[in-house]
Design a protein that fits this description.
The protein is an alpha/beta fold and 418 residues long. It folds into 2 domains: 102 residues, Outer Surface Protein A, domain 3; 295 residues, Protocatechuate 4,5-dioxygenase, Chain B (3-Layer(aba) Sandwich), CATH 3.40.830.10. The protein is built from 14 helices and 14 strands. Strand 13 and strand 14 form a beta hairpin. It starts with a helix and ends with a strand.
Amino acid sequence: MVTEQQGALENPKIRPLEAFPVQIEGKEMVGLKDPVGICPDVVFVPKEAVFLLSLMDGSNSLRDIQAAYMRKYGTILFSEKIEGFIAQLDSCFLLENSHFANHLQNLRDEFKNGPVRKAAFAGTGYEADPKQLKAQMGGYFTGQDGPGLPEDGSGKKEIKGIVAPHIDFNRGGTCYAHAYKALGESVGVSDNAKVYCILGTCHTPMQHPFAFTRKTFETPLGPAEVAKDLVADCAQRLSFDPFHDEFSHRTEHTIEFQVIFLQYLLGERNFTIFPILCGSFHEMVQQGISPMEDPIYKESISILKQQCSQFGKICLVASADLAHVGPLFGHQETVTPSLLAEVKTKDEEMLGHVAHLGGEEFYRFILSEGDRRNICGLPPVYALLHLIEAQEGELLHYQQWHDPQGKGAVTFASMTFC
């Protein structure tokens, strides 16, 4: 008798994964990354295994895969080797089967029933030891190209919002620091009970425009409490359940990274957060329509703006990277100095609309390109521009990271709004 699990392994189906080339000890390998973080580690497989992965769509048996390999390479791939490879993938929950489904449900139940959103990147994205983490964060302010530490009482304006990157700290920590130095010098930054509404890109699919959570964000620097009354008031008025996609918060870094900077900046000051993940605009871009033409999105923005305005003492934070170009992001063209210069010119024009608080102009600029440059921070920046009550924006710092081999580049910036 063949069990359900055995049948799933006999006709393996790979889950949607991110794959990227890498060299390990001089050997060409492929890294497999789970975009939803169910498998927390990158799994490295031989380059030739990519062909096997392409056949794992659930319709091919082990014999079908073996025969296809023989036709392509003219050599026999023994059953034991295929079975071992499939077992490796299954042990890492990279196959779509009951083993993965049961594990996913257990993770969902655990996250739903827990009061805390545990730090997902402590020890990998940043230092896990509090003392070392503070030293790491301070280095982004005081190191090369850093803006320096905030000077108490030097602010002349009240900053009502910022745009900061969400790229990993090692590549963009200095850029974050420019936004947070300005925020640290803002009039009113020491006000008690201030709420920081963090709008983060969600890198996994969501059913609804926004995803809330009431969970305390736990980091090496301590707990960051959520403004639960504000969250509840907004949730009660929305026409959809903003907690439906709450599981997306579990391993999404875009809010966690801003919380770390806020904790470092504010220290013992009393503050709370309103963490909101923003869903993709991909379908709207394809249709050529504005998000504000969607009644649910428009209503959501109106409710969020009204409730935040009534609550008072709120600063908006858009956790947003900009362009993603090169073969790593689906482009044929490799990254060259001329391409980077072209991207910078377009980024600066695009950010000009953001500085002038032109939410629709910002969106139309990206729409005119068909979002070919993959502007990752589109949803949170767009939401910020429609929620914020400010007079002007200012670009503080612009930065580009690029792979030395020309495989990819990411751009990002820090901005303030007063």
